[in-house]
Amino acid sequence: MAAAAANLEDVPNDVLFHELLRRMKCAPKQEKRLILVGPPGCGKGTQSPILKEEHCLCHLATGDMLRAAVAKQTPLGLQAKAAMDQGALVSDDLVVGIIEEALKRPSCSKGFILDGFPRTVVQAQKLDAALEKQGVKVDKVLNFEIEDSVLEERITGRWIHPASGRSYHSKFAPPKVPGRDDITGEPLLQRKDDTVEVLKKRLSSFHEQTTPVIEYYLKKGVVRNIEAAKPANVVTQEIQKAIS
Is the dihedral of CA 112, 116, 121, 127 positive or negative? Predict the structure, then answer.
């Protein structure tokens, strides 16, 4: 406790004040535990920050959490690193353990958004068991539904300016000069994952893995289908209705 107090003394006043205001705003919020499911390019990355801010939730991306646990050399992080160093997959139990650790943070007191996990029914069962130990459960699984053909148009039309990160789309946000950055005139590049061939493989794997998980949560009555092809602001409204 003394160490924490000492650390707080070094935190700038504006940061402390901002955090105090945030906690006051979040205090009356209802707890929500959400899982977002959807293929690459469906819009989860657009909607997650909105949900996080509006409902004071923490965003749990398992890949980022694993890397953070390894970097901090937590007991679970060391176990995960040992598995990765041997070229093995990190076990479901380890991933769930890292999620359990994260849920103890004050930032997760009002609930969470879980993205990228669970990918299998076994993982879903282990997650449910871990939450049950804390006396809580998944409230809603938001299933971002969108046709593969729409995703293909969305994703394969994306181009970026590597130096700045500026992004364009050949149809929805084209550069002034085809293939050139608006500011520098330098060539635009397409990410390796944004080709038709790679996308089709990713979508096939996604559908194969995810269908059983959706069926699992359908039986629990917590799945809400979201029409993800609609404009982003309309999707936001649909989500608010689904989780209210």
Answer: negative
Domains of the chain, start order = 31-41+134-244 (3.40.50.300)
Q: Which of 22, 72, 191, 220 is catalytic?
A: 191
Q: Is 202 a catalytic residue?
A: yes
For the stretch 1-47, pLDDT in tens is: 444 545 778 888 888 888 888 888 899 999 999 999 999 889 998 89
- Give Cα 168 to chain centroid, integer Å: 22
Q: CA 159 to CA 34: how far, in whole Å? A: 31
Rounded to two decimals, the pTM is: 0.83
The residue type at 174: P
224 a catalytic residue: no
End-to-end CA distance of the chain: 38
Reply yes or no on whether 22 is catalytic.
no
What would the pLDDT profile of 202-224 be if each residue is shown by its tens digit?
899 999 988 999 999 999 999 99
